[in-house]
Prior knowledge:
429 residues, two-stranded antiparallel ribbon, 20 helices, single chain, mainly alpha
Amino acid sequence: MLDRYFKLAENGTTVRTEVLAGITTFLTMAYIVFVNPAILADAGIDRGAAFVATCLAAAIGTAIMGLYANYPVALAPGMGLNAYFTYGVVLGMGHSWQVALGAVFVSGVLFLILSVLPIREKIINSIPTSQKFAIGAGIGLFLGLIGLKNAGIVVDNPATLVALGKLTVPTVGMAILGFFIIAVLDHRKIPGAIMISILGVTVLGILFGLSPFGGIASAPPSLAPTLLQMDISGALSLGLLTIVFAFLMVDLFDTAGTLVAVAPRAGLLEPDGKLKRLGKALVADSTATIAGAALGTSTTTSYIESAAGIRVGGRTGLTAVVVAILFVLAIFFAPLAGSIPAYATAPALIFVACVMTSSLARIDWEDITEYLPAVITAVMMPFTFSIATGIGLGFITYVVLKALTGKGKDIHPVMAAVAIIFAIKFIFV
């Protein structure tokens, strides 16, 4: 039955290989069940409910991706997007977490509409390649700043805005240790490097009396504090349209980038280079975002960590189904998630930031009309503590610079329209 449904033989794989691939993928991305609730808790969301919402959103999204699109790709609340949700929209702009969830829900609905219609290709194609790379790098820098702050490595300073924290503080030392553990394990291609570091540093912190231990397993916490709590009407107000746009664009590009990256090795490319069943994969991703917002978590998106499972042979949706089952089982480990301190998760943020920022290397550094707007996009995200602001300023710079240098033909009409909308917002709103 499994062979017929997932076409295992046709894809040159077996049930054993797919199960092993699913376990491998889960181990590489399981850190999200610890990190995401910690970030969302800073926005005022009940941490236990956020933990359950994270596990369920990941399980639902990944199951849909496997059963509907037959892709060996796993989904979970996205890193960077969760930080923007908490530190940008809620704490930075002063909106309630219910309104922020509403914005995520609306962006998911729009993404679903774009996935069903052929509009999605036009939007993706309208954004220049340099800006796509810059958005990923900028989110990485934004995430890195948050990780450094949570670790205590970077602190606020009234004279210089930021300064180096005291590296002799035990928790700071633990964070630094965690970062190097991740780096070394990842270099050695050991699955679950981030999760191993988080758990290892947590254990050391508990043994040294730096943080309390709340247990390992128990009945799942209640989802009631976050279930269907999104404020959709508040999210549809004029002031939040750019926030919805930011969630939508980042999710769209993040998903597209992940699918394009894993497609060749997973055998998901058609002879003409197009992705097989791309429409179904995008529908699965957008549906996961809608479900996640309803449950109480930030944008759910495809994870590049899926490449780990694909590397060991995962080729079909059965890999994703295995990951989904493991996320459901993870719900029973809420006490362990509650025992994870900030200094244990901060290294994960910093490491992911380093990986994401590497996309800057793919920008054309010989063309100032390409790299200058890209740098503005990437740099302004952490400096303004807003992904949306970074995207807006980068788009405006790109359009203006291209127009002033006689390269107006490089400006897509959609890109120009978006830049104008951002300009109006910055000036009048």
